[in-house]
Amino acid sequence: MLAKVGCLQSMLKATPWAVSTALVLAWTDPHRRYKLLLLLFGGAGVALVLKVLHIAMRGLCKNPLEGAYLLGSLLYAFAKTVLQFVTRGFKPIFPQWTLRFELFRIFIRVGMELYGERVLGDESYASIVREQSEWFGTFWGRKACRKAGKRYEPVKINGLEHIWLRSQTPRKPGTKRLVVLYAHGGGFAIMSPRLYIHFSNALCSFIEKELVRQLGPEAAGKVHVEIFLANYRKVPKHSYPTQPQDIVEVYEHLLYHENLDPSQVVLAGDSAGAGLIMSAMLRERRTKPHFLPLCAALLCPYVDLTGDEQPSPYCILTPECCNAVLKAYHPLIEDQTKWGDASSIHCDLRNLPPVFVQTGDLDSIHQHAVRLVAKAKADGVSNWEYDVHPLMSHVFPIFPAWFLPHADLAIEKMANFIVRQLRPTLKTSSGFNPSAMAA
To answer: What does the record give under GO molecular function (predicted)?
Structure first.
């Protein structure tokens, strides 16, 4: 027995020398050296891919087994989508779509079908997705800002980070500011203002082009466009009415501290963010009607807590996600009398500023927009505009043009609406004294 132990110890001592000798011999042979390098770099590449996948999926998956299952599901869905693309003669499923958009939709859809409820209902996962959106949005947004001649400026208000998007050229004296306060979507739980830096560059650019088209170069030069990407506390850690109150507070902060007149501010948002914009306007109408903004723009708004959405197979939203949003957002979802302005289609919509409602008919919450516009008409409102895009799914306008060219058309229509509302106000004063108005 002692002899065996001694033999094993001798082998262990000799192993490092044996390995070193084998590596030296392999390195001196060009053919073996090539195989050794291939093995080393191949192993490092596989390890890097696995690490990236782990980082990317940790906002969805509990463990590597779930990650492997998600990866397998994605590969199958991708292969199926590409095969269908080829059999259609290399054409996307709809003329307005691209293969890139199809694959991205599949990526989100599969992830939401498997683990969407967890992401929207568990803070530990939702916070990871928010961090990922911040990182990606910063990287992507910097490139967009350089291309558009803009800059983004983080600012802390009420303990939250918000983002200013401004021109790199200083504002000229005597120009009138137009500020678009934008509330991002994400089921009230995920995403961040930084993810929308790229989109806000596109929106700002289209507004500037519309100013030139509608007013002429000289008059357009007297308007300085800025985007304010507003943040708010997220579910499931914070539930209604925290989110709409956060939007109200940051809006009033802009009026007071930026010396902005309400006629210089547009409130806008997509999905859950659009719902918060509606809630914020209803609150201002009730308490400070003189604070109502120039107008509002709602992209694919989430404004109905009824919970009877018709699922669309072409949308990134799944029924499970919609149910998770309801449960996480409103603590008294079972009692309709407690919904309040969280479900704005059940509110009186009179005496609000002009509202632009945009939607796609393949959106799982398309009926939210339809019902909201119908409710406004039933209330006798005539200054709203409804813009529906056939064969478009949820929040399609926020995608870049190289990803989904049709998105530019949607943003252009939104910009056209905003400038048309601005034109009658250009002869008014750009200063604002909230205290004086309140008095």
So the answer is: hydrolase activity
